[in-house]
Structure prediction request, 401 residues.
Amino acid sequence: MTKTNFKVLTNGLCAKFLRRATITALWIFATSLCISRLDAQPANKSLSVALKNPKTTTELYLNEQTIKVLSGEIGNLSNLKVLYLDYNQLQVLPDQMAKLLNLEILSAQYNQLKSMPASMSACKKIKELYMSSNQFADIPECVWAMTELIELDFSENKITAISQNIAKLQKLNELHFNNNNVAKFEPAICKLTALKALYASYNKISSLPAEIATLSNIEIIDLANNEISTLPASIGKLTHVQKLFLNNNLLKSIPDEIGTMTVLKYLDLDMNNLYSLPKSIGNLKNLVELKACHNMYLKSVPPEIGNLTNLEALYLNANDLETIPESIGDLTNLRELNLTSNRLSKLPASIGKLQNLSKLYIRGNNIGYSEINRIQKLLPNCSIDLIEKDKEPQTTADDDY
Prediction:
């Protein structure tokens, strides 16, 4: 082997070795970072350890530690910004919590709390407060002093009313009070003009105030599983709403003004008492998913539904539909169509234009075999659900032998 060849060979081996060494070094460095982070976590999960460095502790995670009594010494953590107390057995929070003047996030979900210390009104820097799944009968007064709040969650409690003081939380982006016993939609909520998401499902709300129109920045409204019988026409002014959940209420009609909510992507009207859908629903051209199933008095769908050219999923099952409009064929982006359990005897020929349709549910109708064959020819690449569950073959123990 010549000196030149040897030099080329050694240089190549060195380069190869260096590449491997670099990769190995990077892997060791990354692994050491992970290990150091894992090693650091236990310190953040122990109050006693945190109290050894009270000035430097900024985050403390005491989740799932079966804590029944939280030591008042926690008040010594003067620079604490994040505190999680979820999934414990707390019945009260110590008064010394009021000393946590730098606290920004407090979560005490899944405990047995009924109140918060009044002195916690001093914790004015809190931006996120999560108190779901406790025993609160109302939202504590101290909360109304936390004017920096961005997210507030008191879902799954025993709250019967929302105080008008909620209007003081002018920076609130998200409000959760679902799964309570709230009977009235407090008009003061409508003063939260920064609100982007409202979750109030599973309550006993019977109506909405006309002032709801002032929630000009709201994007998500969840009022499912309430007792709402009518919607104010002013709901049409909520032109930033993308998701609207009104399922499982007592609605008999939807106001025409809903057609001005043109950025809507998801609309759920399932399980109401609707007799019809407004023609203006055809204006919701950004709609991706529409649910209007389980409305036993709904006998027809307006032809304007064909204008929903971005629609990908349409659920009209368990209604009283006898016909489907020809315009259904204009829903060229439709991927799933559920017409189960209606009174349909045929589908329009235009359904053959739905070449993106991958799932069609038509069982539980009056559709005969010849019509089924026609539909299958029109939609050769679509999975069609035809079989009634109650007519499926019954398997017995004897069939296994």
Summary: The CA atoms of residues 254 and 278 lie 7 Å apart. The helical segments are 3-40, 47-50, 369-378. The longest strand covers residues 59-61. DSSP finds three helices and 15 strands in the chain.
